[in-house]
């Protein structure tokens, strides 16, 4: 989780994560917040020892926060949760199950395959997401319905093997394209969405949509000349390490 000036919601999110016993660690990056976000995280940590709070002195974008959080994980499955309440933490188990059962390497929670609730939101934002998803699908040959969703789960060894570079929202596209080039198996599940307006702190802007399209093209071209870690080797190495650590 990467949090930037989310003092109103980050404590509530962490409180709703507390009863989820399948979660073994909660990595929260305070991404240069200037409000009481860090204080809310530290207070939640007093109630839940699974929480680890990392700090970036000055905000450097969502991508920087997520990269630090991902690098700091140790779990077999890594699940992303935003610091706002647009995505219901209680539904995270639906992202975990396909990976846990061995049928998927990556699971995206689609806001367009409505599960319980979908707050009626900005139509232009929907069109932008649709355009970005179509553009991404063209270059990845995946049939995703919502590539920009923040509800994502990954095989831990695979996502940590990527050398992610994005600093802002385009990290969503870098992750998708790189994992596809590693021949990862993608699944989608329906996920509820409770979107908030810009007046309540939503941070994505039109320029981020333009950057997303640019970086889809950029990473698609770059990966023609760049070798990624071999999926099978990464998994075998992770399993060997796990077996060596077993008593």
Quick structural gist:
The protein has 247 residues and is α/β, with parallel strands linked by helices. The chain has helices spanning 10-17, 37-47, 62-71, 92-100, 123-140, 156-161, 171-181, 206-222, 231-245; strands spanning 2-3, 26-31, 51-56, 77-80, 106-110, 152-155, 186-190.
Give short descriptive properties of this protein.
three-stranded parallel sheet; 9 helices; alpha/beta; Spore Coat Polysaccharide Biosynthesis Protein SpsA, Chain A; 247 residues
CATH class designation: Alpha Beta
Q: Please tell me what the overall shape is.
A: globular
Name given to the CATH homologous superfamily: Spore Coat Polysaccharide Biosynthesis Protein SpsA, Chain A
CATH second-level architecture: Alpha-Beta Complex
Word description of this protein:
The protein is of the alpha/beta class and 247 residues long. It has a single domain (2-245), classed as Spore Coat Polysaccharide Biosynthesis Protein SpsA, Chain A, CATH 3.90.550. Helix content is 43%, strand content 13%. The protein contains nine helices and seven strands. The protein has helices spanning 10-17, 37-47, 62-71, 92-100, 123-140, 156-161, 171-181, 206-222, 231-245; strands at 2-3, 26-31, 51-56, 77-80, 106-110, 152-155, 186-190. A four-stranded mixed β-sheet has the order 4-6-5-7. Strands 1-2-3 form a three-stranded parallel β-sheet. Strand 2 (26-31), helix 2 and strand 3 (51-56) form a beta-alpha-beta unit. The longest helix has 18 residues, at 123-140. The relative contact order is 0.15.
